[in-house]
Amino acid sequence: MTRLTAFQRVVSQYADIADFLVVYIEEAHPSDGWVSSDAPYQIPKHRCLEDRLRAAQLMLTEVPETNVVVDNMDNSCNAAYGAYFERLYIVRDEKVVYQGGRGPEGYRISELRNWLEQYRNDLLNSQTAILHV
What is the pTM of this model? Predict the structure, then answer.
């Protein structure tokens, strides 16, 4: 949650060239488990999908311009993308073109920003026309 402000800035800055999606996975620091002293919210471990959906509503308030979805209770998205605790990806034409490091240490919003900036420059320098309908 603490990095969402920087992520929200990237969303706003690059909304013209990218769609953004947040996948809310299992809670990294549940209030009834391994508690983080700087957690802005007290979220208990999700016992059912409804618990996870309620927690994801908080995330949606933090990143209102972004689509937020939730992983299932089997955590299959988390397992498939190695997201625990947090991770940044760019998927283009159904292929992963950027895979950030695992958070919190490997989570680098600056790498995401650099990739998107290079992509924007490539678009501007190409002959491809972008139509917004």
Answer: 0.77
Other Cβ atoms closer than 10 A to 83: 20
Give tens-digit pLDDT for 68-103. 999 999 999 989 888 777 889 999 999 999 999 987
SS3 per-residue string spanning the chain: CCCHHHHHHHHHHHCCCCCCEEEECCCCCCCCCCCCCCCCCCCCCCCCHHHHHHHHHHHHHHCCCCEEEECCCCCHHHHHHCCCCCCCEEEECCEEEEECCCCCCCCCHHHHHHHHHHHHHHHHHCCCCCCCC
Give the integer Cα–Cα distance in Å for 41 and 99: 28
Third-level CATH fold of 1-131: Glutaredoxin (3.40.30)
Instruction: Please report where in the chains the tokens 């999908």 appear, as a residue.
Output: 49
Domain map (residue ranges) of the chain = 1-131
